[in-house]
Design a protein that fits this description.
By secondary structure, this protein is α+β, with helices and mostly antiparallel strands. It has one helix and two strands. The relative contact order is 0.23.
């Protein structure tokens, strides 16, 4: 993964964590997964809030 892609992932993770701290109900779970073969990154945040 190149420098620009790494910085983009860090920015997205930072924004997600900031939003989770501000708006989510604990517990908050951050999931990161990197597929080295495909050079892809998955980022997700979940909390216990009712989606309805």
């Amino acid at each position: 993964m190149g420098q620009a892609a790494t910085e983009s992932v860090l920015l997205v993770v930072s924004e997600l964590v900031t939003n989770a701290i501000e708006h989510a109900l604990p517990p908050v779970v951050l999931r990161l997964h990197r597929d080295r073969a495909g050079d892809q990154v998955w980022v997700g945040v979940t909390d216990v809030a009712d989606p309805a």
